[in-house]
Amino acid sequence: MFVAFALGAVIAYFVYDFVRYVKKFPPGPFPLPVLGNILSLDPNAPHESIAKYAKTYGPVFTVWIPQPNIVITDYELIKEALIKEGDNYAGRFRGNIFTLVSKGNYGMVLSEGNEWKEQRRFALHVLRNFGFGRSLMEDKIMSSTTRLTDEITQIINDSPSKMAVTDLSWPMQEAIGNIINSMLLGYYFEKDDPRFIELTKMIAQNFENVRKPALLLVEGYFWLRHIPFTGHMGLDALMENVHRVCKFMTNEIETHKKELEDSDEPTDFVNAYLQEMARRKAAGEDMGHFSDWQLLLTMLDIWVAGMETTVTTMKWALLFMVHYPEVQRKVQAELDNVVGRDRHVTMADKSSLPYTNATIVELQRCANIIPFNVQHKVFEETTLNGLVIPAGATIIPQVHTVHEDPKLFPNPKKFDPERFLDKAHEKVINTDHVIPFSLGKRACLGESLARMELFLIFSTLLQKFEFSTSEGRPLPSLKPKFGITLTPEPYEVQVTMR
Ligand code: HEM
């Protein structure tokens, strides 16, 4: 009797304590102990479950996956949080597994505080010097784009009908990977270089690994990592890949160190970073958060964040052109008028190509590749939309929902570049609400580079080639596959020379 009473009291206390904890956060779907709301999210499209919750609970609510995440789905509220209260919302949720991998507050994407501020400022400074928005970067992008167009031309010429039906994912991956690589490490990989193949494979595997249920459980309940016969719940496989990628990056740093000449104008990121370390050391200045380990993790972050996102957007771009041939024709007509077919498209052409620009904005809105924005963290308690946001809470500024908001984009599912053109079709308008790079202090570090890549690669491909689906074949699906990004299912396009 006593035991039953004591057990009842313990359970009652546990329930009371749990409910009290849940009440600290903005209301949302009520969570189960341990599992939170995981079971009620659509496993194939959890971002769509989030959009549905917003309809029930309003633009600020908590979802437990299984830890509490406060989701903001409204543009004006995201702006209020990330810009007006930018400093407070600039923290990051790092999680147990990443803390194990990074050994602390290192890297770019998931670091925070003064260390992150110093490193981000330095990275932006270097990237600007390389010509984010200037000619050096443009040259690097065009060099890779030309290799891509040469390769596609070759595939077409090799086909007897001069009409290639092919999956362009890998050539695109190589082209975009090489842009990042030449900026980071100063060289281009040769076609099908085994090192590039292995690196992309290991990173892709780890993207898969972190989504496996065993590792999600380890993230929530870190002691589970001690269970040995399960490969430590999948951690061993993940760490093995991490070690191999780190080894590649370490070798690169060592090679750069051997070739480092302080007086040389740096031509890649690693060089610039090592020179800054050498300069500080020589001047007896504080090294701040500059170290080989910080450099390695930043290289990794830029490599991963810069490649997957841009490749995925370009895959969607070609897919949308196949689905909307009338848009493709209008872009091509504009390019023919402004650039012609005999010279390269340049950044100087950009302002004279309103239809092409509007199409790229609409592509990014409709592709909507980030199903869950990178989690932020608030440092101090605050309020948003009249709700208390506790200090230390994890925040998801849900860009995905903004891009499908019918108040901002009437008939949001329609792919319609003209929604961003004035009546005379001479000016691009109303693009403020399209925020694929997010907003505020933690907005994408590579935004300028990515915008330049998307413009130059997309317009060069459309200037030279016609993309369609081959006769008799169904159109490839526009249904996205859920992962760290939303990607199209693998598809083949028919490509001909224009
Ligand atoms: C179409 C291409 C891209 C898209 C859609 C994209 C989108 C994003 C988004 C949504 C974030 C998170 C923002 C937030 O926390 O609120 C982010 C962060 C980041 N991106 Fe990108 N990105 C792209 C390309 C690139 C490129 C080319 C680079 C390489 C330089 C890059 C490097 C980064 C880094 C380092 C961060 C972390 C910034 C920080 O936490 O301070 N991204 N990106």
UniProtKB/TrEMBL annotation:
InterPro entries: Cyt_P450 (IPR001128), Cyt_P450_CS (IPR017972), Cyt_P450_E_grp-I (IPR002401), Cyt_P450_sf (IPR036396), Cytochrome_P450_fam2 (IPR050182)
Superkingdom field: Eukaryota
Residues holding heme: 444
Keyword 4Fe-4S assigned: no
GO biological process: organic acid metabolic process; xenobiotic metabolic process
Cofactor(s) needed: heme
Molecular function via GO: heme binding; iron ion binding; oxidoreductase activity, acting on paired donors, with incorporation or reduction of molecular oxygen, reduced flavin or flavoprotein as one donor, and incorporation of one atom of oxygen
Coiled coil: none
Keywords, in A-Z order: Heme, Iron, Metal-binding, Monooxygenase, Oxidoreductase
SUPFAM superfamilies on file: Cytochrome P450
Cellular-component GO terms for this entry: cytoplasm
Heme recorded as keyword: yes
Pfam families (alphabetical): p450
Record Gene3D superfamilies: Cytochrome P450
Family under the similarity heading: Belongs to the cytochrome P450 family.
PANTHER family, A to Z: CYTOCHROME P450 508A4-RELATED, CYTOCHROME P450 FAMILY
UniProt protein name: Cytochrome P450
Species the sequence originates in: Plectus sambesii
Lineage: Eukaryota, Metazoa, Ecdysozoa, Nematoda, Chromadorea
